[in-house]
Design goal:
Blueprint: H1 2-25, H2 34-42, H3 44-63, H4 71-97
Helix pairs in contact: 1-3, 1-4, 2-3
Length: 98
């Protein structure tokens, strides 16, 4: 189950990065995460590469078959997956209405 959640998080994070990057470039949305907003303000490419790197780091857990199994990681991963699902739905709304 955790492998599937990590796969989902890697893909969702990547898609969120791409959709957010495009949305910010087109002035269609605003970044809600203060840290990512800070990185975008420094340079939009730093923002995008950070999202790509984070997705790649999640994939490394899968590649090396070393998925953390602590209860805390399971809970955080579950809530992150739910949050990314909501975020991707919000992206779908602005893309559909754009």
């Amino acid at each position: 189950m955790m492998k599937n959640i990590f796969r989902y998080l890697a893909g969702a994070n990547f898609l969120d990065g791409v959709f957010t990057y495009v949305g910010l470039q087109k002035d269609a949305i605003k970044e809600g995460n203060p840290l990512m907003n800070f990185l975008y303000a420094i340079d939009p490419h730093i923002f995008l590469w950070t999202k790509i790197l984070l997705s790649f780091l999640l994939l490394l857990f899968l590649i090396y078959d070393h998925i953390p199994t602590s209860l805390l990681i399971k809970i955080i991963s579950f809530f992150a997956a739910v949050a990314y699902t909501v975020i991707l739905c919000l992206h779908g709304v602005w893309i559909f209405n754009w």
